Amino acid sequence: MTLPIGATAPDFEAETTEGKIKFHDWIGNSWALLFSHPKDFTPVCTTELGALAKLKPEFDKRGVKLMGLSVDPVDRHSKWSEDIKETQGAAPNYPMIGDTDFNVSKLYEMLPASTSGDPLTRTPADNQTVRNVFVIGPDKKIKLVLVYPMTTGRNFQEILRAIDSLQLTAKHRVATPADWSQGEDVIIAGSVSNDEAKTIYPQGWKEPKPYIRIVPQPK
């Protein structure tokens, strides 16, 4: 079982392709996306790292820092980066953790606490549970967890959509419906009473059922 939503994201120190970092200090007052990979030079992850590099401006716009992870050493990440640029058209433009002691993978409950040994002798299948996405808020709490199998590439447009929802609902007392995207109507949170809602939304709301109160997205 992975860490639950609402838990404090474990802090750690790690070597990355951009030097040593202390995770909470690196996040600072930003949001963060930590996404993990079972092994360098794997096909699906190669496409994901390239796709995320191309989308980095979209994450920057939302104030979200990107951090990758693989249990292989940092020098292998650098060599892998060359392949990613050649095959995907963009190399990683964000730091990648070399989790050679499995410390971060264990802290985030992606590998059993008993995991040990030389990461280079492990196969992708040995690390197949290291396929998570964690979205972490400025308060260092985990806001979203996605876990993917090795054979299914991640949908970063969906991750951006979810971050839009997380950031909106952190600022306003609303929830977003199924398939919501930026600019569409939202739902008044259940924690807001009708009397309180009248002061927040004096123009009223649509109410197909008493528990579904629909308003335009707050600015």
UniProtKB/TrEMBL annotation:
Residues of the Thioredoxin domain: 3-168
One cellular component term from this protein's GO annotations in UniProt: cytosol
CDD domains (UniProt xref): PRX_1cys
Keyword terms of this UniProt record: Antioxidant, Oxidoreductase, Peroxidase, Redox-active center
SUPFAM superfamilies: Thioredoxin-like
Catalytic-site annotation from UniProt: C45
Full protein name: Peroxiredoxin
Source organism: Bradyrhizobium hipponense
